[in-house]
Design brief:
The protein has two helices and two strands, in the order βααβ. It is mainly alpha-helical. The chain has a domain of 43 residues. Helix 1 packs across helix 2. The protein starts with 35 loop residues before the first strand and ends with a strand.
């Protein structure tokens, strides 16, 4: 009995999600209008604010919220 192997792959591929890496580059083939606002991006920006402040202690929350605000203003969408 010669049976053709059946494929478990779907004939229609699901759309590929485009994400933005911390270096600002996107993966995926489609351009992305807004970059995702990730924990990593916020942490990087908050650290930049901390450094610019002269390493002021006790302002972590302030730097975090300011980093979120700045990134949203720049057009980053919240990553879910």
């Amino acid at each position: 009995m010669n049976r053709k192997p059946t494929s478990t792959r779907s004939t229609s591929a699901a759309p590929r999600r485009t994400t933005t890496r911390s270096n600002g580059k996107t993966n995926g083939s489609q351009p992305h209008a807004t970059a995702e606002l990730t924990h990593e991006r916020i942490a990087e920006r908050a650290h930049e604010l901390y450094v610019r402040s002269g390493f002021q202690q006790g302002r972590a929350d302030e730097f975090w919220f300011e980093a979120e605000r700045q990134l949203r203003e720049e057009g980053h969408a919240l990553s879910v």
